[in-house]
Fold:
Amino acid sequence: MTSTTTQIPLSYYSLPHCRPERIVETPQNLAQVLQGDYSQNSLYKFKMLESERCKVVCRVKLDAKSAMEFKEKIEQGYYANMILDDLPVVVPIITHDEESSYIYKLGFKVGLIGHYVGVPEKSHFIYNHLSFTVKYNRDIHPNSTNIVGFEVKAFSVHHREAKWGGRTGLIACELNEQVLHLSGPQEVKEDEEIIFTYNVKFQESDVKWASRDPYLVQNNEHVYWFPILRSLVVIIVLAFKLGKFMLGTLRSDSKLETPDQTREETGGTSVNKDVCSPMRSPSLFCVCIGTGVQVFGMVLGTLILAGLGFLTPLIRGRLVTTMFLLWVFAGLFAGYTSIWLHKAIQGSAASWTIISLRTAVAFPAAVFVIFSAQSTLLGLEKSPAAIPVWTMVKLFIFGSATLIPPVILGGYIGFKKTEPQKPPNPTSELPRVMPGQPLFKHPVLVALVGGIFPYVAVEAEVFNFLSSILHHQFYSSYGFLLLAFFFLAITCSLTTILICYNRLSNDNRSWWWRAFVPAGSSTIIFLLFAIYFVLVKLLVTKPVSVALCLGYILIAVSAYFLLTGTIGFLACFWFSRLINSTFKTD
Structure:
């Protein structure tokens, strides 16, 4: 069971539902362990192509404790989740558009809150009757029948027994689903007997088994075009501004000077002198850039595979497994980049093993600490998603054995194969005296303003993605998300190049970290937006739930900061070296 207001998954049998005599859990893969995703058997039995009509699952008499548990979970908005042949159960909701198409929500509510006519006090009602629709497709060649859809409609029915025709049965079972409400809803209260029932109906479908994910079809793709046009406008404006600024600066550098004039270093000449100037904390900087490259490789690879349809969420755990494997593979590029950049800054990389090791463990260690804290909180809430201590130890050993070697190997390749990067022009030995800067050019203000453009470029798609994930629903617009990712990369590059070149042109040699921060500063906006979304949109108020959500948000925004900062810096570094190779000085 899952809830958007608590974000704490619970076992279906944590409530007094109908339960089998022996509960059997299916084996989990690594991704399911990390997600706390597991499945158990149930008393809902289906036989292929055999319909069932109001079959009784069990009868449960509520005491004060069980009634209170049901009421609490209903108020917290918990959904029950089931799977059949690896298909998650969904509730079809008609859109009432021109085509009267459907959208699908994962799971069904445990119950609802309402009140009787003329009674102001609220009451809690449980969904005790489930009407399943199993869609199937006949495969002619192997002469087999495959399940391609699993839908449910939940009803609250106060079952009553009656005798007629020499037999005893439930009155509501003789009614159609359209008039089930005539028997009244099933209220949750002490000493009340609840009868759980279900129907099963098989419906033939044209959907083939190989493409049995119609749940993922989006019916509102037209709403994405406005954010795309807005992102294009931002990119065009930034490109125009950068071209105009560059053209004016290069023209000023190309003016002829008289022999009696003292040559001043401005524009591209100043960039030439300071592009390879020293920096503070080069090792930490290289670790951040290397980790950012690793995040970039994982995100890009995941979006491409998902956009091509290889990462359907119907295969449980595939998305997380793929992200993990891509992270391990991207470790080669992370180690290579961190050592390559360190040699470009320092001229050597004698401590390449230490830098590579820091690159390999810094971000995963932070994620592991947050993940361990979240697992502890889930354990205190008796959630099955909590990972046992011994499993955490095995995950730590497995992670160390798989994450560190690729980064070390990449660092070794960078140390052996890459020659130290030497500036094509001499760099000033002494720091230039910095002229006074106006208030609007203050580094903090410039960084905050620079973060607005990347945020505007991807705000809409990030909102849709965040909403789907936190509401435990399907997300399938990976094509749009990949397009938004490209817009983000272009916007970060143009914004950082514009800010960096302006800084170097105004005799400010402290550009390394300040080329990393402006694009990454959009993280602040996303952090505030994510907190607002959790507290206001999801209405999360439980302290443990808030802490869990903040942990997820902290991991996400940290990865986003490293990603955007790395994109911005590498674009600025490439552009600066291009300018440096263009201007030759004596």
Residues 218-222, 256-275, 423-427 have pLDDT under 50 and may be disordered. Residues 2-211 form one domain.
